[in-house]
UniProtKB/TrEMBL annotation, chains A, B:
This is OsmC family protein. The lineage of its organism: Bacteria, Thermotogati, Deinococcota, Deinococci, Thermales. Pfam families: OsmC. It comes from Thermus brevis. Gene3D superfamilies: 3.30.300.20.
Length: 186, 186
């Protein structure tokens, strides 16, 4: 691979080949992601993420799992060994918007020099605690402010920002309902 | 604090006091969580999570930030330095359901000995790639299977599972729309 084929850290030839392969066989686009989580104590959990299905086969490229730790801060009666669940959602959103922006910038020939996100979300704990019918358990609203330095006009970057919002998996997951089936084995 | 006041790693007296304080002053239930994310290269980002507002004041109890790394696996043209954004969402969901189950079990006097979650989500990459109008960018569906060992009847545990689903912040965020405002500074 030559230096010319990379932009923003992305293998442009690989990106084009991926798009062409999926256009030829849309089944390659079907992915199934997985996680396994063990409760430790109190609000503390450990999640392992490793294998997934995608591009027509079970992906075994990860030699070891990623481990994510979740907990609650002391004011929420936890031991603060990791960010809590709703804080992690903010990271997922930024991570997703970054990938969307960087990959699509690369596809359009836009070089990005810097990209950063500040996100905040408002939550009324009365919902979780079952103290109010009016308060929903989750975020009432999330605000994303992001800053970019790139070699493109403001118009092109705002257009890219719009496109990324239309195609971001996590933004879609937040803005629109996802069917979630929960089953408990006792 | 005596041993009798803890169950499942939760300070029961603290939980009761928190609920009473919020019933007396619902403004204490207002939380604002935050994240800051820097893009590194390609699909790789680093997120710092530290301070938040809640219980009537800015919480500065965390001496250092948590750092979360996001990336894409090689088949998605990343360098696999961390789980991707939609995998992280599965962790957030398990983390949230675990907290809901454990805290509410503690409040009901149910001792939990073990709790684990397997979650999977199906995603059609054609949405992210803009190759199909029919494919949404995010998860088409998520399935949670969880197993619990606890000193309560199956009926009580299934009832608890239902209650947790009604009050879980991340489950609410997934199942119902959240307003997300995105603004880009060029």
């Amino acid at each position: 691979m030559t230096a010319q084929n990379r932009l923003n850290g992305i293998d442009i030839d690989g990106l084009v080949a991926t798009v062409q392969a999926i256009q030829a066989d849309p089944n390659l686009a079907r992915f199934r992601f997985r996680s396994h989580t063990d409760w430790v104590s109190g609000g503390n959990v450990k999640t392992r993420i490793q294998g997934f299905y995608g591009a027509g086969h079970e992906d075994t490229s990860r030699a070891a799992p990623f481990t994510l730790e979740g907990d609650e801060p002391s004011v929420l009666l936890g031991t603060d060994k990791g960010p809590n669940a709703v804080e992690v959602v903010l990271h997922a959103l930024a991570s997703c918007l970054a990938v969307g922006f960087i990959y699509n910038a690369a596809a359009r020939g836009i070089q990005v020099d810097a990209l950063e996100f500040d996100i905040e979300g408002d939550l009324d704990l009365q919902g979780f605690l079952g103290l109010s019918e009016k308060a929903r358990p989750g975020y009432e609203g999330i605000r994303v402010r992001y800053r970019v330095k790139a070699d493109a006009s403001q118009e092109k970057l705002l257009e890219l920002c719009d496109y990324v919002q239309k195609t971001s998996p996590v933004l879609d997951i937040l803005r629109n309902p996802v069917p979630v089936k929960v089953s408990l084995e006792v």
